Fold:
Amino acid sequence: MKVLNIVSVGYRATLEEQDDTVIWLTHMLRRAGADVDLLLRASAAHYVVEGQQVSPLAMGGRAQRNAPDVHGQVRGLAELGVGIFILEEDLDRYGLQERPKLQQARVIGSGALPAFLISYDALWHW
Structure:
């Protein structure tokens, strides 16, 4: 079964969990042998941009400085053979077109989205 994980909320629970839970789940599924790809939508489009950083969270006099490296986690997925996709319109919406991006990320237009989605057996939207 070929699965597409669609992530449309960027940096959800990343301070609490030290990773994006869906990115982590995709790693685990892939390592277990699943045929899974990833479509990064909306604010999750930032995951493919080089140099993304999360600022430390400070409460009172204490700071949490171990921010997650979500871009590195997505790069790791690509190195495992997971297809990384992003919509061209999301890159435009967030002003990311000209920013250096993960080399393996493939940009698709929304007009090609229906044909792209139908090539999967299951779509999991998070």
Summary: The chain has one domain: 2-57+64-125. The helical segments are 14-17, 21-31, 70-79, 88-93, 113-117. Strands lie at 2-7, 35-40, 57-59, 62-64, 84-87, 106-108, 122-125.
